[in-house]
Amino acid sequence: MEENIFDNLLTRPSLFINKEVMRHSHSPTELPHRDREIKAIRFNLVEALKGQIPSNMILYGVTGAGKTAVIRFINAQLEDKGKQIGKPVNPVHVNCRTIDTQYRVLAFLGNSLLESYEKEDIPFTGWPTDRVFDELVNRMNRRGGVHVIVLDEIDHLVKKAGDDLLYNLCNINDDLKRLGQARCCVIGISNDLKFTEYLDPRVKSRLGQEDVIFSPYDAGQLSDILEKRAKEGIKSGVLGDGVVQLCSALAAQEHGDARRALDLIRVSTEKAEQSGEDVVEVQHVRMAQNQIECDQITPVIKTLPPQQKLVLFSVLLNERNGLSNIATGEVYEIYRQACKHYGTNNLTQRRITDLLSNLDMLGLINSKTVSRGRYGRSKEINSCMPISIDATELMINADESLNSVEKGKYRFQSRL
DNA sequence: CCTCCACCGGAACGTGAGGAGT
DNA sequence: ACTCCTCACGTTCCGGTGGAGG
Fold this sequence. Notes:
19 helices, Helicase, Ruva Protein, domain 3, Arc Repressor Mutant, subunit A, 5-stranded parallel beta sheet, alpha/beta, single chain, Rossmann fold
């Protein structure tokens, strides 16, 4: 039989039991170290089971603090219990990053309430918004029970589409009361503690009746989480010494992001698998860390204006030549040479200062102003990219236009 | 204590692209 | 099609500055 390129990979045993468990999209059934938050939300939402309207809430916390996982978990339990005792609860989870206009959110909510015998769907577009709203209210009423609407990344929605939707949703109970028994409560999830500043005061007071703040995980807590998940997702004995600890520590530096921790351990295991090893070692974590950072950085660089890219490239070139703590003047000098090389005209140093502080804000470089006394006052500039990432490759990946002059660039580099 | 380096960063202004209003 | 306005991007000009070295 002819050999297939996938044969080898298929026969090799995987290091995972279930890779899905190691993704951050997976909803776990146990949420270590979120007892306080679960308690607070549970205490409010239990009202739904008593036939009352729970308060609207906003959940705050940095990315990867478990907000989404917690609310999904609680809602699932709530729905089950509601069915059991005959007090129906209908949770709906809306991700406002992908569904980010008033119309789309309303249509999404409405369509999530379709019964099997209902044919007419709310179209993507076409209806006036208030008709969609009326339809939503009708469907909620027909379905009955308590509707729990979770608006994930609500800050994103508000910044993009304003607070009209929230105003309407906050007042939806008035309409529902007129029609029947159905009730509704809104739970917003936000990364941004201060997003309520964008809200109309009336919406603000109605929506933020109860706030829950998720504090970031520390390294120890992240370890617990990883170990719990790894038990389900990765074969035992696969994770080498210190791997979990390292992943937790790295993620703890990244403002306690459990997503990052899970990504790290999953990608590390993939790396070990790819190189045909049976045990994940610390080196695989380093490789994973690099890859994740690279995957994060590339799209940011891609969207940079050309001159900004060149400035960044100049910093990287300096670094590749073994320099660190580069001064603004040095970057500018390289930058000017680079411009000359590519035949673009160069900007003034004043402008470069601004571009550099821009790169600093984007987290692509680190810079601090220092005084070297007699030798002037300047910035010490370092890139934030792992040295193992090849600067040229990174820039070429991120910029098609550089591709055409790639050959010249190598010559340019070797001249430095 | 003073000087003076090598830059920082604010202010004012010019330019062109893109959007709103008419 | 037209004006008006805003915004991002750049330039020119220039006063300001922490500290090593005299």
